[in-house]
Amino acid sequence: MKYGDRIALLREKRGLTQEELSTKIGISRAALSHYETNRREPDYETINKIANFFNVTVDYLLGRTDQPQTVLDNDVREFVEHLDLTDESILKKFSLTVDGRILTPEEAKRFIAFVRAERSLE
Questions:
Q1: Could you give the CA distance from residue 88 to residue 99 in angstroms, rounded to a whole number?
Q2: Helix/strand/coil for 26
Q3: Which of 20, 40, 45, 112 allows an S-S link to 16, with CB 3.0 to 4.6 Å?
Q4: For 5-27, what is the mean pLDDT?
Q5: pTM for the whole structure
Q6: Rounded-to-10 torsion of CA 67, 10, 46, 83
Q7: How far is the CA of 106 from the CAs of 82, 92, 103, 112, in angstroms?
């Protein structure tokens, strides 16, 4: 099932018209119509608004799962919401990969140093 079909299904289950839903999430009715018919893809902000409105995950809307609500493990939620690579505990708890290869602690430190150097040039 494509994202547009899921959006339309969720809207219809709530008994909303396209006009009502579009007003509630702050987009035009025409844009919603295009999303529901899979003629256009919603941007990141819009897909998040739709997911939040219906209390479903973005993965569900995009068809990556058939489970509307997936509860994340607390460690995973913390990682997703507050990723700070300068926190040593994050680097010890989770594996970071580039091109399918796990970064060594030294590579992760060099990556952080590179980002800091790039930012200092701005």
A1: 22
A2: coil
A3: 20
A4: 96
A5: 0.57
A6: -20
A7: 22, 12, 8, 10
Per the listing, tokens 């219809």 go with: 12
Query: How big is the CA angle at 17 (ends 11 and 21), to the nearest 5 degrees?
Result: 65
Residue 89's CB: how many other CB atoms inside 10 A? 8
The CA-atom distances, in angstroms, between 62 and each of 28, 29, 119 are 20, 20, 33
Other CB atoms within a 10 A radius of the CB of residue 33 amount to 16
**How far is Cα 79 from Cα 75, in angstroms, rounded to an integer?**
6
pLDDT at res. 62: 85
- 9 vs 35: CA distance, rounded Å: 12
